[in-house]
Specification:
- By secondary structure, the chain is an all-alpha fold.
- 72% of the residues lie in helices and 0% in strands.
- It is built from 5 helices and no strands.
């Protein structure tokens, strides 16, 4: 039973290490992709007010509790009036690009912490199962079962 436990921990370890490495080497790719998607949807709504993209932009605004973005290339008030949740006033702190970036950073930090804790428990499990297996396997006290004497 102990070699199977060690194998399971080792298999989990072999999956967690590449995930942690990917998180640290490619962590900004997720953030950049989300920002690109938001920019694409926002610009499509600004150029062409299709109902499908407008619904997508409204869903993004509702999910991240933000409204619009700062743009140097044109008026954004028309897009924001159509896609921002009703009753939401645009503040300086509600720029969607900043809100998406903050949201992803917070959650990616949580994922990193969870990966680190899981790797720690996996290493602990591997050490524990190997210690138990070696202590039981190489123990000579098991040969004396039922032959105890009091001195």
């Amino acid at each position: 039973l102990y070699p199977q436990g060690f194998f399971c921990f080792a298999l989990a370890f072999c999956g967690l290490i590449p995930a942690a490495c990917w998180r640290y080497t490619h962590g900004t790719e997720v953030e950049n992709s989300m920002m690109d998607v938001y920019d694409l949807v926002y610009e499509e709504v600004r150029r062409n007010a299709s109902s499908f993209r407008r619904h997508e932009l409204t869903a993004i605004h509702e999910a991240f509790l933000c409204c619009g973005k700062r743009s140097l290339f044109g008026d954004t008030a028309n897009v924001e009036r159509k896609t921002c949740p009703s009753g939401q006033v645009r503040d300086a702190g509600q720029d969607c690009l900043r809100e998406i970036q903050d949201f992803l950073k917070k959650h990616m930090d949580f994922v990193s912490m969870l990966l680190g804790i899981t790797i720690g428990f996996t290493v602990y499990g591997m050490i524990l199962t190997s210690f138990l297996w070696f202590s039981i396997h190489f123990s000579s006290n098991l040969d004396r079962k039922g032959k105890y004497t009091l001195r």
